[in-house]
Amino acid sequence: AYHALVDLPAPSNISVWWNFGSLLGLCLATQILTGLFLAMHYTSDISTAFSSVAHICRDVNYGWLIRNMHANGASFFFICLYMHIARGLYYGSYLYKETWNIGVVLFLLVMMTAFVGYVLPWGQMSFWGATVITNLLSAVPYVGDVLVQWIWGGFSVDNATLTRFFAFHFLFPFVIAGATILHMLFLHETGSNNPTGLNSDANKITFHPYFSYKDLLGFVVMLLALTSLVLFTPGLWGDPENFTPANPLVTPPHIQPEWYFLFAYAILRSIPNKLGGVLALLFSILILMIVPILHTSKQRGLTFRPITQLLLWTLVADMLILTWIGGMPVEHPFIIIGQIASALYFALLLVFMPMTGWLENKAL
Amino acid sequence: MLSIAARSGALSPYMQAQVKALLPAVVNTGDVLKKSARPASLNGPLGARLTHTDIKIPDFSDYRRAEVMDPKKSSQDSGEARKAFSYLVTGSTAVVGVYTAKTVVTQFISSMSASADVLALSQIEIKLSDIPEGKNMTFKWRGKPLFVRHRTEKEITAEQSVDLSELRDPQHDKDRVSNPTWVIVIGVCTHLGCVPIANAGDYGGYYCPCHGSHYDASGRIRKGPAPLNLEVPYYEFPDENTVVVG
């Protein structure tokens, strides 16, 4: 541990974009801590789940604070995740293939944890979001329907579903913690990348005190942001529908997931075919595993590659558009915009960015 | 030049050794590093010089403290003041940090304490006129049975005249009641926690069927394995007809 945290040689020039790894660790610790205390008061039976959350907020000492930290902490988890992945894409960190692929697994695990976690308050959006997304599994050929009913533990999202989702939500963070250790194990085989993308062995500094203090500053900034959000506008990123207890007989007019899933939701809805949409949804995340194979440039990162930089920022803008579209109803003009944005997402990663990498090589 | 650095990789220790060896020979003018007498070598006598003697040291004036800007003044004069400021900032941060940590820990720990709904049920108000003389009524209070007994004059006299030396847990009746007419005790046997039966046993009080403990009409243990008298909770009579327990 000393070798990993104190003496660890780190590049001297890693910027704030390198803070998000440790911030993700902090997010995980925060979620586990707040989640543990919530679990002391939450009940996962459909007759008492919703009121147990109300009980936590109203009756349990500081329950309102712990609940809101947990709910908004999940949002910060995804903010840090997206920044961390963006850093990986921009600076070519994905060339550390084992670290990168475990990272994709971590991303999937966190998404699954957040998904089952959102069901637990058993509000309208909890129920219907669970119904919509679990129904996607019926798109699997031949075994689809059997699979869905197996996940549900019945013929619809009901008590059996909620109780097992609580069990999963409790379990997965510890799997994430284990995978995080593996992630760092592989990272420490190579050491961190740096903004130049060049070998930094000639200029390494010790983790402590430089990056221990830099990470601590990052923690303070993130906790300040999280605490401000929790204390001033705790419901800002939530859906008002979730203040209504789940009703299997009444579907809300606008079902949508939390903001961090909206881009994927937009991609899912952009394809008019059920199985096609599910495959596009899956591939929109799994494409990350192909990115290292599509690396064509002689340079590792985008620091000295202006054309590909432009494309990456286009990708960022495209994801913001997809996020916006995911929250809109399925009507004109949102349908066509969503389809173009979805196509652009895949085209940028699979075609344009590899192409500009090849072009920039010619300019060297 | 960049390509040489990029390819230096495995040779970097050797490069560093060269640079380090040169350091004593270098004079820092604050502007440009002067060249040293000994040339550096990458691959022997024909190697390229790797010490970048054309590097300008940046101007850090924006970050330096005012007291040390003048190169002609000794920095030792302002040393104490500068250290004091640094220690003050560090100390204050530490104090705030400790307070924050204490607050967060306290909040988490107190979330495990009794919640508002539990505290709301922590008191019970009983209308005494509902309990006839000579009878015991049982209420649920804080999850446990609460015995409220309306004693007769005969019972009161009998319990007040009991010799304390006979008692395993000596307590006079007047120390267990504020109004002798009403005995209020928690209906949990002090042996192993069973609920005694009212108006039963050899002493006109309560009898625990689990292991045969007998309590009198004051709730005191008289016979059997229980070590202590039945517990008397805190209660008040806001008026003649009402008692509030808890």
Automatic annotation (TrEMBL), chain A:
For the ligand (a ubiquinone), the binding residues are: H188
Could you confirm whether the keyword Metal-binding appears in this record? yes
Location of the Cytochrome b/b6 N-terminal region profile domain: 1-196
Note whether Iron occurs among the keywords: yes
Q: How does it sit in the membrane?
A: Multi-pass membrane protein
This entry's Gene Ontology molecular function terms read: metal ion binding; oxidoreductase activity; quinol-cytochrome-c reductase activity
Tell me where in this chain the Cytochrome b/b6 C-terminal region profile domain is found. 197-364
Give the subcellular location: Mitochondrion inner membrane
Main site of residence?
A: mitochondrion
Cofactor needs? heme; heme b
**Transmembrane annotation, as ranges:** 16-39, 74-94, 100-120, 132-153, 165-187, 216-237, 275-295, 307-327, 333-352
Per UniProt, the keywords (alphabetical) are: Electron transport, Heme, Iron, Membrane, Metal-binding, Mitochondrion, Mitochondrion inner membrane, Respiratory chain, Transmembrane, Transmembrane helix, Transport, Ubiquinone
Q: How is the cofactor bound?
A: Binds 2 heme groups non-covalently.
Q: Which GO terms describe its biological process?
A: mitochondrial electron transport, ubiquinol to cytochrome c
- What name does UniProt use for this protein? Cytochrome b
Oligomeric state and interaction partners are given as: The cytochrome bc1 complex contains 3 respiratory subunits (MT-CYB, CYC1 and UQCRFS1), 2 core proteins (UQCRC1 and UQCRC2) and probably 6 low-molecular weight proteins.
Residues binding heme b b562 are H70, H169
Provide the function of this protein. Component of the ubiquinol-cytochrome c reductase complex (complex III or cytochrome b-c1 complex) that is part of the mitochondrial respiratory chain. The b-c1 complex mediates electron transfer from ubiquinol to cytochrome c. Contributes to the generation of a proton gradient across the mitochondrial membrane that is then used for ATP synthesis.
Top-rank taxon, per record: Eukaryota
A GO CC annotation recorded here is: mitochondrial inner membrane
- Binding residues annotated for heme b b566, in chain numbering: H84, H183
Instruction: Give the species this sequence originates from.
Output: Barbatula barbatula (Stone loach)
Q: Which family, according to UniProt? A: Belongs to the cytochrome b family.
